[in-house]
Design a protein that fits this description.
92 residues, mainly beta, 1 helix, Phosphorylase Kinase, domain 1
Length: 92
């Protein structure tokens, strides 16, 4: 169960858009990306599929909790979650 290796400039296509990886935020599993159509920043998360599935289920279940980032999109290949991006100091 390994995570997907991403690199700056790579692209991922989800059901609601295409995203370009822009910056590594934490280790090799949390990145900042941008929707190529709207130029909106997103958090891109990669992990073993079972962990992503669990996180997706929890984010969906608790989508009305304002202190959790919203799940915006998913990518199947490679498996990624795309979450709303909050600049430092503006989040919860």
């Amino acid at each position: 169960m390994s995570t997907v290796a991403l690199e700056i400039g790579s692209q991922a296509k989800g059901a609601h858009g295409t995203y370009t990886i822009a910056e590594k935020l934490h280790r090799d599993n949390v990145w900042r990306g941008a929707n190529t159509q709207t130029n909106t920043n997103v958090i891109v998360k990669t992990a073993p599929e079972s962990l992503l599935r669990n996180e997706r289920n929890m984010l969906t279940r608790f989508r009305d909790v304002p202190t959790l980032r919203r799940l915006l999109n998913e990518v199947q290949d490679p498996p990624l979650l795309l979450l709303e991006f909050e600049p430092a100091g503006q989040g919860c």
